[in-house]
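Appendix B, example 12.
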Amino acid sequence: MLDDPLVKTLLTNVVEDESNLPIVQALIDGVETDEEIASQTGIKLNIVRKILYKLYDMGLASYKRSKDPETQWFTYTWKFEKEEVINRIKKDSENYLKMLNDELEREENNMFFLCPQGHARLDFNDASDYEFLCPFCGEELQFQDNAANIKQLKEDIKMVESNFKSFNEKNG
């Protein structure tokens, strides 16, 4: 599952560092306790626990707690929630695509003006409110040809749609 770029990106963001991904892989492989995961991965127990609780907080892992009758210590049995990962990626991808499409629509339906000092980028309505002067430094705003922005957004949308389609074909 970690071979998928969308899964890897999501889980790397959760576990903060790619070097912690073996914890997730162990969980995916069915290793159930924090001690076993630490032993198998060679990662310190406190880091394993921290990552497991981060996964739990995001709904990407769950646990069951049981008490040892002899020692009275609690044992936590962890489980990777594959369906939650799939649902999260689908939701995040849909939200990201919506944001990109909204931005594309904004770029296609507006003219933009830039401050030569880089202070502001305003659409026509906002630029006209400021009489085509930068609201920060007073320099005259210059027209920006946003064709490159539009082209980049279309490429980004195509890439995200392709990755999302590939992910859906693998994960239903």
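Residues 104 and 153 are 6 Å apart (CA to CA). The first strand starts at residue 61 and ends at 67.
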